[in-house]
Prior knowledge:
Chain A is an alpha/beta fold. Chain A has helices at 11-23, 55-58, 63-70, 129-138, 152-163, 184-187, 191-197, 243-247, 286-300, 369-375; strands spanning 4-7, 29-32, 39-40, 59-61, 73-75, 82-84, 89-92, 95-98, 101-104, 108-110, 144-148, 167-172, 199-203, 207-212, 217-221, 226-229, 231-234, 238-240, 256-258, 269-271, 276-278, 314-316, 323-326, 334-341, 345-351, 356-362. In chain A, the strands form 8 sheets. In chain A, strands 5-2-1-9-20 form a 5-stranded parallel β-sheet, covered by helices on one side. A 5-stranded antiparallel β-sheet of chain A has the order 22-23-26-25-24, sandwiched between helices. By secondary structure, chain B is mostly beta strands. Chain B has no helices and 3 strands.
Amino acid sequence: MKPIVVLGSGLAGYTLVRELRKLDRDVAITLVSRDSGDFYSKPMLSNALAQGKTADALVITAAAAMARQLDITLLQHTEVLGIDREHKQLQTPAGVIEYERLVLALGADPIRLPLQGDAADAVVSVNDLDDYAKFRGAIVSAKQIAIIGGGLIGCEFANDLAAAGYAVTVIDPTAYPLSGLMPQQAGEQLLEPLAKLGVTWRFGAAVKAVNKDAAGYALTLADDTTLSADVVLSAVGLRPRIQLARNAGLVVNRGIVVDAQLCSSDAAIYALGDCAEIEGRVLPYVLPIMYAARALARVLAGEDARVEFPAMPVVVKTPAHPIAVLPVARDAAGAWKILAQGRGVKLGFFNTQNLLQGFVLTGAYAAERGEMVKQISTD
Amino acid sequence: MQVWQCVVCGFIYDEAAGLPAEGIKPGTAWADIPDNWSCPDCGVAKADFEMVQI
């Protein structure tokens, strides 16, 4: 019997294997990783610095121990070049891997803005542990760090770097922090707490070019003003990795299209995590991965399972002013209302039937997340 | 008193501080947290994963 092959050793790949092993101790599983396959907590990449954690210290379980604990065959540093669906084979530089069923847990790539200038390639992204190690090396002698993007990852890095003593500038074309996740009266709560830590905000500003200058880099903004930085970090979002699936002829949209059983347009191929579009939704957060992994494990174990997502709040790890948000769709009908303020804000989104559909809790209110989830109407 | 960390998301549980917002009093040992508790950040159930001592 050919194995179940899992592509990807991130949270999605490893959690799926861990859940599947609880249900089936015998099925052969091969996990293929592009990197070392060490298991680490990705959410910590953007808040490990102030804790003084090196890349090595973020590894929770080394690859060899993962393989032993989960009783899997682990192929490290192996790039999959193509999927031959007819013969159920994967092409790699090291040869062919056969699969019975295939799970794509490929993750997502950082979006790179098209920038002009002779140092555009020096702009860094931190999307995995290797990136983090390089970034830690780059900031050793740095004082000023520019962050392109004031969304969740940009704000978490800003808090982490400023708390570690760096002078941070955040540049974002929108009007306030976290604008993709919440209304202005919530996002702007971050302004002052992070400014006190040493963050300079530049909203309504887009970076046009990055050039080398005497000390480091000079960023030119769209209004032709400039600012200097020793390191430039880009955090403008993620794009699901769909190329391998597309080349194999699977149905893709923003992500690899799968149904509630995490099954793609090929009955032997599944997808979950940041690369997947599950019933029309791309959900690049921890909680959806956990629910999808549990459902897919049951499907692979032969059960008639379907993923059901409960209310899944997102935690923004900005210790200077913690935030928990249950976002609503951009086109959702309803309105945000202020439920409390004074120690941060507490906002609820109510639909046209006046039912609570989403919330933002900032500052002291962030601790009320569990209570708010219970009040959410999923009808 | 010990400090524990969620292996999935990095959430820190400090026994000395507890989680008053979730009704877990300061000084509650990890062993005394109910089995139906789940990580406030990533939702993994207590029984499904290991907090590691740090």
